[in-house]
Amino acid sequence: MLKKVMVSGANGFVGFAVVKELIRQGIEVTALVHHQQNRLDSLNTCLLKLVSCDMKDYSTLPQHLDHDYDAFFHFAWLGSAGEGRFDPSQQMLSIQASLDACSCAQALGCKTFIGVGSIMEDETLEVIHQKGTVLGKAYLYGSAKVSAHLLTQARASALGIQHIWPKITNAYGPGETSPRFINSTLRKLLNHEPLEFTSGTQNYDFIFIDDVACAFVACAQSGKDQTSYVLGSGHAQALRHYVEQMGQVIDSTQKLNFGSIPYGGVQLDVSMFSIDALTQDTGFVPHVSFEEGILKTYQWIKGEHHAEV
């Protein structure tokens, strides 16, 4: 039973959502932030404590905090989206910070370390095992996540604490400001910009941010040690179908130009997106359909857009 937890990267898209869910469940949260202004300021609750700490300073935390935490959720990651994904220096710093966070978790008395993985790990490993495939810069982020996954898993084992690694397929929802696929596509639809895509035959899965938050808390409470869970909707399908659904939900008449952008990635089998293990071990079941999630996200973007005008 979780009573008190640490959350790094608490000001980010996923981290903030998890903090809100933890508080909703009555769990005390110490949130690590490095911005003076942050969205956590909107959470007016005695269950939340903000601690200013840069990623490089995680090792100093046990000197200043009580050692009575149950779990450490580690979301902080430089270069999680945009051009930063292609920056080796940012990825290396994030790997080291993940190791430091794992050591910090044990020093603070945590029984469990929860990292944040990505389906890009599976894509990267798939490319590595295909003969003649070039591991280009598009797989740098995935490679870094694989490294952080394995290194923190080994360290947690050596330290005698649990290691749980949920791998997010693709998270989306209100509050997302990065150039990830759903966010950028909906903004293009809103601004009537050209809609250029690959053929869209590659399998994808998307999960609404509220479900993401519930899944992470469920993993911390009931997940099995040394286990990696796929965190998605459980309804993976060809990317093209998702794009077409977006157009239908927001009643767009704009042309969707499939095949105008070449796709050089790998095709993951639908089975690799299965959340059966997650549901079996934790009882987690997503509650927000893609159509409902897209509508909520689009309405939020529209409100944000109008506020800027």
Descriptive report:
With 309 residues, this protein is an alpha/beta fold. The chain has a single domain (4-177, 205-235, 270-288), classed as 3-Layer(aba) Sandwich (Rossmann fold), CATH 3.40.50. It has 9 helices and 14 strands. The chain has helices at 13-24, 88-107, 120-128, 140-159, 181-191, 209-222, 239-249, 276-282, 290-308, and strands at 4-8, 28-33, 48-52, 71-74, 112-114, 117-118, 162-168, 171-172, 196-197, 203-204, 207-208, 227-231, 237-238, 257-258. Strands 1, 2, 3, 4, 5, 6, 7 and 12 form an 8-stranded parallel beta sheet that branches. It has a two-stranded parallel ribbon with strand order 8-11. Helix 2 links the parallel strand 4 (71-74) and strand 5 (112-114). Helix 2 (88-107) runs parallel beside helix 4 (140-159). The termini are far apart.
Subunit organisation of the chains: single chain
CATH architecture: 3-Layer(aba) Sandwich
Taken in chain order, the helices and strands follow as EHEEEHEEHHEEHEEEHEEHEHH
Helices, by number, come to 9
How many domains, as an integer? 1
Helix content: 25-40%
Average pLDDT score: 92
**Shape verdict:** globular
Beta-strand fraction estimate? 15-25%
Rg, nearest Å: 19 Å
The helix-and-strand class reads alpha/beta
Largest sheet: 8 strands, parallel
The span between the termini is 46 Å
The total count of strands amounts to 14
CATH H-level homologous superfamily name: NAD(P)-binding Rossmann-like Domain
What descriptors fit this protein?
309 residues; Rossmann fold; 8-stranded parallel beta sheet; alpha/beta; two-stranded parallel sheet
